[in-house]
Structure formats: structure tokens, C-alpha cells
């Protein structure tokens, strides 16, 4: 199908290569040299969760996940993201041969695409929807940057395997996860899970609040309401996100899905995260590793909400060692 253009370049992120590289360098340089007591990248950190908003908002947070990512043994990169541009039941794979970035091209592993497509009976992403989708594209500049840092020449770059994970229930997520288990166990594969966390505001139809600072006891605010007299709204958002992050760190796919059902937290990449967690959980149950649980290294919000008329989006970076 040829090359997918970088549709968000020049709007969601800088389109000029020199300026974009300067921006990413700045974000990456802001990450400490050590995370969780380890020099970066963290050995064996082959699965990461990173946000996908405009770089001005989420780029600094994403730098933490990408700094942790270990590419030293990798042969390919799986990129799993949610669909924002059309309703998707099940999963779907790209039809493109390359993803273009302002830096250059990332080659798509068509063989791997065909294998997972057949194994999971995945659909094809309609090309126009693929171009419009930002959850995959927003990772490509960071992927290119980290590949350049690790391998130098573009000729040595790893291919990518872009997959959209649709609006699946618990059992469908487990079924999709079974497609990726063998790849996730293989040290030659890394996985990038694309997700923002809480989207709060009337424009997201999510305006929950807890006067008691308890995520288990939520009410709803209206845009015209006054700012609550109790704890600020952003404290409720933090508590809701922390509950979701605790579920992610706990490693139970069922508990993660149950937590989101309880709070309604608008984690847009909940299905890619769910698939990754189900795959990791399966690997641990096999006894293949005692590791494979996510560690959260960064949490940020686009703004600290105080008024019901405000809005914010939350960003999380995490990694799992296998």
C-alpha cells in the first residue's frame, strides 16, 4: 500500500526535522540518568506504556517511557493503540509498507502483520482511517529517535508492527492477547502500548468528583456548577488515575477492567493496556518469568482542574521487564 504520511506533523508536533529533534532531545534530557535504581535504558524493559497527545502536552511524559525502553536485543517493535477515528470491534492491522516521519521512514514488518492478522482474524485498518489515527503516529518520532540512538544507521532500524486494538470486552481482550503471547515472550520483540489516561471535562462527558476524596464514591458535576468547596477537582482526577495505575501495577487484567468499570475512568488506551496485561499475566502464569508487571515512572496532567467548566487529560509512562 506504500507509505503512510505523517498527518499530524506540523500540528500535533513540529514538522521540521531539526526542530523536532531539538524538542525530543530536550524531553529526553530531562529524564534522570537512573530510574528505579537502574541506568537507562532499563535492561529487559521490553514493554512500555506511553501517551499519545500533542507533544507540547504529553511529550515530556512519554520521554520517561522511551528512556526506559530496552532495544538492545530487539528485532521488531509492536505498536498497539486504540482507534479514535472509527468504531472497531476486534483488532486491525495496517495495510501500509512504511510509516513516514519527519526524520525518515519506519518500515512495517509485513510478514509479522500477516501472521498476527491470520492468527487473530484481525481486520485491515482502512487506509484513510489509518492516516487520520493519531494513537499510532504520535509514537513514530520517538521510535525513530530511539532507533537512531541505539543502531545509528537507518539501514539497521527495526521494523514496526502497527495494530489497532478495538472496543473489546474482557474475554475478547484475553483472546487478542493470546495472539501476542509468543511474541512477547521472545526477547527479540518489544511492545509499545499507546494510551492517555483520564480525560476529564464536559467535552469528554466525564465530570466525576468525590467530596470525600474517595474514588469509590463519585458524584457528577455540571459545567455551570461552582467550584466545589471541598478538595479541588484535580485531586479526584489524581485519585481515579492512581486507582487505575495501581491496578496496572498489580498485574491482574480482571482487576484493571473492573476498576475502570467502577470509576468509568476514560483511559482511551484501556483496551491495548488490557491486551498487554492479559498477555503478561499469561506469561507469568506459565512460569516463564517472575517479572512482567508494569512499573509507573511518570504521571502528568495537561492542567490542574479547579472548575467544572475546565478540562484536562492525564498522561502516564510505565515499563515492564521480561
CA-atom Rg in angstroms: 19 Å
Q: Helix fraction?
A: 25-40%
Q: What's the CATH first level?
A: Alpha Beta
**What's the helix count?**
10
Organism: Emericellopsis atlantica
Family: Belongs to the MEMO1 family.
Protein name: MEMO1 family
InterPro entries: MEMO1_fam (IPR002737)
Report on the architecture of this protein.
This protein has 322 residues and is of the alpha/beta class. The chain has a single domain, classed as LigB-like (Protocatechuate 4,5-dioxygenase, Chain B), CATH 3.40.830. Helices cover 38% and strands 21% of the residues. It is built from 10 helices and 16 strands. The strands form 4 sheets. Strands 4, 5, 6, 9, 10, 11, 12, 15 and 16 form a 9-stranded mixed β-sheet that branches. A 3-stranded mixed β-sheet has the order 1-7-8. Strands 2-3 form a two-stranded antiparallel ribbon. A hairpin with a 2-residue loop joins strand 7 and strand 8. Helix 7 crosses helix 10 and helix 8 runs antiparallel to helix 9. The chain starts with a strand and ends with a strand. The model has no long low-confidence stretch (mean pLDDT 97).
Q: Could you outline the blueprint of secondary structure elements for this entry?
A:
Blueprint (H helix, E strand, L loop, with lengths): L2 E2 L12 H13 L4 E2 L2 E2 L5 E6 L4 H14 L7 E7 L8 E3 L4 E4 L2 E4 L2 H11 L2 E2 L2 H6 L1 H4 L2 H12 L8 E6 L4 H16 L3 E6 L4 E2 L7 E2 L9 E2 L12 H18 L2 H11 L6 H16 L8 E8 L10 E10 L1
Parallel strand pairs: 1-7, 4-11, 5-10, 5-11, 6-9
Antiparallel strand pairs: 2-3, 4-16, 6-10, 7-8, 12-16, 13-14, 15-16
Helix pairs in contact: 1-2, 7-10, 8-9, 9-10
